[in-house]
Amino acid sequence: QVNLVESGGGSVQSGGSLKLSCTAREYSEHVFGVYCMAWFRQAAGKQREAVAAIDSDGSTTYADSVTGRFSISQDVAKGTVILEMNSLQPEDTAMYYCASAPVCGRELPPLVAVGYWGQGTQVTVSS
């Protein structure tokens, strides 16, 4: 069992920035740099959606809604995946989840492909 742990959420004003981090309590060497890591978000009353993914080879994929504003990266040695979010807008308000999937193939992983989830961290953007 891999326990992913997110941190870095909070409240910002429109146009602000936040950086989310994801680590694994255990077995990080079997996750980071091996699996595809992704960030999902779920706004109130909406379906959970993938916003960014980074595959084991370092290739990245983004949802159209965040392209140019969000950046995903990973530090395999530290067992960490980072989501840097800039130019945040109220519509980015959601619970953000770290997730892992066997492979992404330069696409955002569907929900059914996710093997492990974090507990989520709240991001709130006010206008």
Describe the structure.
This protein is mainly β. Helices cover 0% and strands 46% of the residues. The chain has no helices and 11 strands. It has strands at residues 4-7, 10-13, 18-24, 36-42, 49-54, 60-62, 70-75, 80-85, 94-101, 116-117, 121-126. The strands form 2 sheets. Strands 2, 4, 5, 6, 9, 10 and 11 form a 7-stranded mixed β-sheet that branches. Strand 4 and strand 5 form a beta hairpin.
What descriptive keywords fit this protein?
mainly beta, four-stranded antiparallel β-sheet, single chain
Sheet bearing the most strands, described?
A: 7 strands, mixed
Low confidence ranges = none
Q: Portion of residues in helices? A: under 10%
Order of helices and strands: EEEEEEEEEEE
Strand fraction equals over 45%
Distance between the termini: 39 Å
Average pLDDT reading: 94
Number of strands: 11
> In angstroms, what is the radius of gyration?
13 Å
Query: Which structural class best describes the helix and strand composition?
Result: mainly beta
Shape call: globular
